[in-house]
Amino acid sequence: MKKTILLLVLSFLLTKTYAQEYFPNNESIHNTTMNYTAFTNARIYVTPTQVIENGTLLIQNGKVIATGTKVEIPKNATTINLQGKSIYPSFIDMYTSFGIEKPKRNTERNPLYDTKRIGYYWNESIRSEVNAFESFVYDQSKAEELLKAGFGVVGTHLQDGIARGTGTLIALNNFDKSKQLLSDKVSNHFGFTKSVTTNQAYPSSLMGMMALLRQMYFDLDWYKKGNSVTKDLSLEALANNDKLVQIFTTEDKLNSLRAAKIAKEFGLNYVLKGSGNEFERLDEIKKTNSKYIIPINFPLAYDVSDPNQADQMELKDLRFWNQAPTNLKVLSDNGITFALTTDKLKKMEDFRPNLLKAIKYGFDKTKALEALTTIPAAILGKSDQIGTLKTGSLANFVITSGEIFDEKTTLYENWVQGNKYVVNDITVKDVRGTYDLTINNEKFSWKIDGEIATPKSEISTTDSKKVKSKLTISENWMSTVIKPNDSTKTTFTRLIGYIDNTENLSGKAVLPDGTETKWSAVKTSPFVKIVEPVKTEDQFKIMPTTFPNVAYGNTKKLEAQTMLFKNATVWTNEKEGILQETDVLIKNGKIAAVGKNISDASATIVDAKGKHLTSGIIDEHSHIAISNGVNEGGHNSSAEVTIQDVVNSEDINIYRDLAGGVTISQLLHGSANPIGGRSAIVKWKWGASPEEMLYKDQPGFIKFALGENVKQANWGITNPTRFPQTRMGVEQVFIDYFQRAKEYDLAWKKYNAAGKKGKEKAPRVDLELQTLAEIINSERFISCHSYVQSEILMLMNVADKFNFKVNTFTHILEGYKVADKMKEHGVGASTFSDWWAYKFEVNDAIPFNGPIMHNAGLVVAYNSDDAEMSRRLNQEAAKAVKYGDVSEEDAWKFVTLNPAKLLRIDNKVGSIKVGKDADVVLWNNNPLSIYAKAEKTLIEGVVYYDSKKDEENRITISKERNELISQLLQEKNKGMITQEPKKTEKVEYHCDTMEE
User: Fold this and answer.
1) In angstroms, rounded to a whole number, what is the distance separating the alpha carbons of residues 765 and 192?
2) What is the DSSP letter of 112?
């Protein structure tokens, strides 16, 4: 054993490099100690699962030399007896901004469209060249907060930008600054936020950020292959740091899925920094196969004592308060690997109470310790240095009075690299008990109770009158202030003394007049702790998670049913027309049969007599259910972005659309620029994930726009500078981009034709031009926001020049003027029924527009472009009958079959025909009637809306709200800290909405 220890010591002496050896020392005498420190008789957690009872921890030079029950202690060792105490590895927080100054926000008012930087990436939110260690300044006071919470090591980085640069690893060593830097570059960081240091307009949306990340990775690959003729320090930094841990800050469960999507596309392995709501999308979170960093900043209870304020709260916010503490348990129970972080805590003191709350809600204590030690160490690739007390690890550990996650446990000391930081004095002596106190020959009775380190004082005179007093103990010095009972007096008696013998206390007294004398106290009886009965505090009922976890969410994942609608009035949208008293069988997600007297033993029978069955409504132009921006208006073309990246599956407007019979929508980019982003065709599968809502194998569409919006005439900008500023400039944007796309496409075709044997280098992947080339090649189709006839003709002329066809003019309120030209071009129309005069370029709109275009032979649809109108598109269709004398059957096609044709999906949806998707709606009346209500809305045979179920949900929601409000009131009555209720202000997107 002696030989083993000597070999270990020799090894450390030979390999150890002391940074401070060559540092000048102008603060004290240069003193190097090679002594050992041995902590004996402790319960030692070498790892969360390896525990040594009555063990010894031996450290030297800031590292662990040995742990065990038979460790031989060298003669020059300082021995500390920790009988009854426990030792744990110090915690690790791998996600902080410790020691990093918050960047200053750019205050320039006018947007910047091109970068001012030279030698870096073209977008100023790509800041991969930033290194945290270069601007790091050790924060002593913040370090002490972390040390008191049990942390010994933190990862820190600049939390700014989309590509944020590298993070550094810091030891919270308050005693030796030369040892604080453990690793200058330990991680590489990304996030979904623009840099505050730039006023560059792009990206202005979440989808723009995702597109920028994709383009950045394509450019990185191109740059690494030596294709660039210029130097790019941002891309070089990305290349140099690609072996580091890649951490992506998502701050939301859906954003975690989005980041994982990018990672999958580029073969990356992000560690995802979440937000605490991961339990709401558990299956999808699990499928990412990612490791996570999870905060424990649980929301405070809301003060709902004012009923009016309580009514402003949404159920999802009330419910999240109730459910948030279960997140860690849910993730752990489902095998998801995660580390914990203090990020987003308002104060460090909340860390321990919140963690204990999570444990109370079922989070396993061993898993909790792993999430603070071994897991972050492993993620960072530093398991050989931190996170355990194995031989060779840094001597980072905490000493506690007992089990670390017990509410009554005291954390005494936090040792970092062998340096002791005192949190609570472990040497404090127990002075609790009853004493006879004498001050200047005056007698008192003195009772001391409470906790050892924070005792309470109660002094009484000989006639049993209580005297106000306060006792504090620090490093075994006790100080007592005795206050006069007369509150008008400001004089005090002060007692000071060193605790040597707890049976007999003594010291100096300073009387109110300043006279110094002696005091003494003789213990007359020992302290007897009153064991109070354990209060079993009832844990609040945890509300079940729904899909989505908002009002009207489903209690389980829905499944397709076999249903037989009997004796319905069926609007087929086929040559059969409207069929009376007809049966329709739904099976395996398809329309299986249409006719009379159909039977199926496995089917649920729906009596549809007197009711109307139609195909689901299709909204060709919608902006609901989009996350963080409908417009990417930072450039005049944003063809690289796609709404498919930002579908918000939790938007209550989805449920409302289903209640209005809508089963499919095209989610379009806004009209902030001439060339907008790619669209998403979605089926409103309420409760499904964003990816599950996307229409399978959907044709590619993109939004273009004309008119006031794209030339910034109505943006309210004092000095608009983005090209174009005129309608003729808009035409030049189209011609320029299509010409460039044509050349780009030819370059790639030439390269691909040459094959691998060709000597030419691959062209740079440009997502924007790639998308526009798809239009030229008839692989993607334009849906164009339009009003004025001259511009409508202009875009068709541009399309003819580049040999493609415009697919759809949307809005098209002057379409009646050029219907013949539109028919000749082969374009369809998706318009409003009777909107007009809401801005100058709409003054010539008429309610006969749709019928006129219909009569001219165009495929005409009515769309909503509005969250409220999309719920009532059946009534919009009826206006075609009112204004244009269109037949009811053709009018109904304006919101069903015709939009399906415009979206090129009419082979699967848009009519009731055997073999098509079972996207159907059962109405209680003629669907064109203002009295019509959807009773059932099915998508692929799944009932996503049922009016009877909706009525039941309203009662359930009311009961749940009342129960949650009762829980919140109980929290306030317990004296818990609360927050003011906040009404969630929801932005409803329109074509011209820009993110602030």
Assistant:
1) 23
2) B
| φ, ψ of residue 766 in degrees (nearest 5) | -125, 105
Is 640:767 a contact under the CB 8 Å cutoff? yes
Pairing outcome for strands 245-249 and 270-273: parallel
Q: Which percentage of the chain shows pLDDT scores above 70?
A: 94
Looking only at the bridges linking them, the beta strands covering 78-81 and 36-47 are parallel
Cβ(418)–Cβ(395) below 8 Å: yes
Q: Quick check: 609 and 565 in contact, CB under 8 A?
A: no
- 3-state SS, 651-713, equals CHHHHHHHHCCEEEEEECCCCCCCEEEECEEEECCCCCCHHHHECCCCCEEEEEECCCCCCCC
pLDDT level of residue 10 (50, 70, 90 thresholds): very low
Closest Cα to residue 814, out of 832, 782, 788, 839? 788
Using alpha carbons, select from 187, 313, 171 the residue that is nearest to residue 241.
Answer: 187
Using only the alpha carbons of the chain, give its radius of gyration.
36
Helix (H, G, I), strand (E, B) or coil at 780: strand
| 725: confidence class by pLDDT, cuts 50, 70, 90 | confident
Structure tokens at 102: 């918050």
Could you tell me how far CA 892 lies from the centroid of its own chain?
41
Joined together, the tokens standing for residue 270 give 């992000």
Quick one: 701 exposed, middle or buried, by C-beta within 10 A (0-12, 13-18, 19+)?
buried
CA distance 48 to 92: 14
Tell me what the pLDDT averaged over the chain comes to.
Answer: 93
Host H or E run for residue 811: strand 808-811
Contact (CB, 8 A) for 593 and 585: yes
Q: Would you list the DSSP string of 459-477?
A: EEETT--EEEEEEEEETTE
Amino acid 112 reads L
pLDDT digits (tens, 9 = 90+) for 816-834: 999 999 999 999 999 999 9
CB atoms within 10 A of CB 554: 16
Which H/E stretch holds residue 855?
A: helix 849-855
Q: Is 342:290 a contact under the CB 8 Å cutoff?
A: no
Tokens of 346: 């308002």
What value does the mean pLDDT take over residues 767-791?
97
Write out the two tokens for 571: 């609007």
In whole angstroms, what is the distance from residue 375 CA to residue 388 CA? 10
Would you tell me how many other CB atoms lie within 10 Å of the CB of residue 237?
A: 23
Choose among 624, 652, 653: nearest CA to 317: 652
Measured N-to-C along each axis, helices 206-224 and 767-776 cross at an angle, to the nearest 10 degrees, of 100
Residues 6+ apart with CB under 8 A from 955: none
How would you label 639-669 residue by residue, b for 16+ Cβ within 10 Å and e otherwise?
bbbbbbbbbbbbbbbbbbbbbbbbbbbbbbb
pLDDT tens-digit readout, 524-580: 999 987 766 545 556 789 999 999 999 999 999 999 999 999 999 999 999 999 999
The DSSP result for 247-285, as a single string, is EEE--SHHHHHHHHHHHHHTT--EEEE--S-GGGGHHHH
**Tens digits of residue pLDDT in 476-526:** 899 999 987 766 677 899 999 999 999 999 999 999 989 999 999 999 999
Query: Residues 208-219: pLDDT tens digits?
Result: 999 999 999 999
Residue showing tokens 């930072």: 634
> What gap in Å lies between CA 366 and CA 343, rounded to an integer?
22
Which structure tokens are listed for 299?
Answer: 């929301």
Neighbours of 964 (CB within 10 A): 23
Q: Report CA-CA distances (Å) from 918 to 233, 612, 660, 922.
A: 54, 15, 17, 12
Residue among 540, 373, 521, 372 at smallest CA distance from 457: 521
